[in-house]
Amino acid sequence: MTRAVATGVSLGLVVPPATPPQYLWPAVEAAEEGGVGSIWVTDRTISDMPWLETMTVLGGLAARTKRVTIGTSVLAIARRNPVLTAHAFETAQYLSGGRVVAGIGLGGARPAEYESAGVALERRGQITDEYIQVMRRLWAEESIDYAGAEYSCAGLQLCPKPETRIPIWIGGASPAAYQRAGRFGDGWLASFVPPAGYGAVWQQVCEAAVAAGRDPAEITPAMYTIAAIGRRDGEAEARLDPFMRSVFGAPLEMLSFACLYGTPERWVDMIGRFGEAGSQHVLTLLVTDDLPGDVELIVNEVLPQLAQRSAGLVGV
Question: For residue 177, what are the domain limits?
């Protein structure tokens, strides 16, 4: 029997929905220079709070970073045209020098978002599956013909082709998402799963991969959390609770298993638990009133402790 051990868990920063540029870009650059493993942007259109458009911010990340992986966590592609979406990812890959991960999911059960795009909510899973196939082929083939239930094209091409392959990480919190990740994903981005439940979810992804004739070892296991950090007990919770109520309609105490919050020491402990459960990456959507300050806290106090913890653990 083998078990995962928290060696080298990579911490990813998901930038807040709408941070003024004079605070966003210095924080992004400090995160890269400070050793954050990846920087991501999340996706939403219809919201009662400011929320910037995902692919536009991804392009900004391509321009303002030099080495770090950048990606979407996650993009609801069923609300978009697959050719235009493939072109946008291809462009970000070109401008970043090959550092893009396409995180893809359904974006939650938000009828208004799908209605605004003219897409029936109940068809979003099938549309997503087809669009993934269309996008992959557009990135790899000179010209494609595709005839599906949700999309068809003939003689379609995009160029320039990505010089390096764009990985697709599948996110979601349902059996259908686990199946999708096993069939199509280069990575699996779990959400709303506690550390104790991560292994069971990952097993479902692996079983779906085997059923599709794929090697589960080729799929990167990762975790998406909603996060807040504070220097003292209670600071992070006070900031995170209103966000959870606004976005998810429930208080923090009901959704704490999906969140990463508290002091730097608590962050290190929780990230370690996800690493022990098998996750190689922990992505954190940071809820903050001071993005540069919180990034500084993460860089100076969380990352060194993670490095020290990883150096002291041995796989068995």
Answer: 10-311
Residue 2 lies in a domain: no
Region of residue 229 (phi > 0: left; psi between -120 and 50: alpha; otherwise: beta): beta
In a domain, 1, yes or no: no
b/e per residue 217-227 (b: at least 16 CB within 10 A)? eebbbbbbbbb
Residue 22: CATH number of its domain? 3.20.20.30
Report how many domains make up the chain: 1
Taking only the tens of pLDDT, the chain with its 316 residues reads 223 333 479 999 999 999 999 999 999 999 999 999 999 999 999 998 899 999 999 999 999 999 999 999 999 999 999 999 999 999 999 999 999 999 999 987 789 999 999 999 999 999 999 999 999 999 999 999 999 999 999 999 999 999 999 999 999 989 999 999 999 999 999 999 999 999 999 999 999 999 999 999 999 999 999 999 999 999 999 999 999 998 889 999 999 988 999 999 999 999 999 999 999 999 999 999 999 999 999 999 999 999 988 776 544 3
